[in-house]
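Lab manual, section 2.4: Encoding a predicted structure.

Procedure: take the sequence of the chain (156 residues), apply the prediction step described in section 2.3, and record the output as C-alpha cells. A sample record is shown.
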Amino acid sequence: MILTPMLNQSVADFQLPATSGKTFQLSEYAGKNLVIYFYPKDSTPGCTTQGIQFRDAYAQFQALNTEIFGISRDSLKSHENFKAKFTFPFELLSDTEELACTLFDVIKMKNMYGKQVRGIERSTFVIDANGTLVKEWRGVKVDGHAAEVLSFIQTM
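Recorded output:
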C-alpha cells in the first residue's frame, strides 16, 4: 500500500504516461521544484481556465526552477487535444488507473446533477527540489489560484 505523502515528507516515486510521447517519472525531476495540479476533466470551463492561468504564468515558474504538470483521469488522446487547443507549454499526465490520484488522495465523492459520483477534487501540490511535499491546496477555487501558487514558490 502506498502512503499518501504528508507535508514536509518525501513523495514516493511514481510514473505516468504524459503528452508529447513522454513518460513522467517523479525521480527524474530531482533538483527542480514541481507544481502538480489535479483537475477533474479536460476541456471543461474551470479546468480550461486553470490550465490557461498556469500557461500564462509558465515563464515565471520556469524562472524559479519550477516545472508544472496537470493530472486528470482523461486519456492521452484527450490530453493531447486539450494541450494543443490551449497551447499549454507543460505536459499533462494521464492517470486512467488512478495511481497518482490515490497517492495524493484526491478522489472524492461529489454531487453532480443530484447524483453522487467519484471524481477528482481539484488539488495542487508543490514538491521541492529534494522531493519533499512542501505545500498542498485541496478543494481549489480556480480564480487566482495559479498566482497564489506562484507567490508560494517565490517564498521558497
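Check your result against the sample. Helices lie at 45-56, 58-63, 76-85, 99-103, 145-155.
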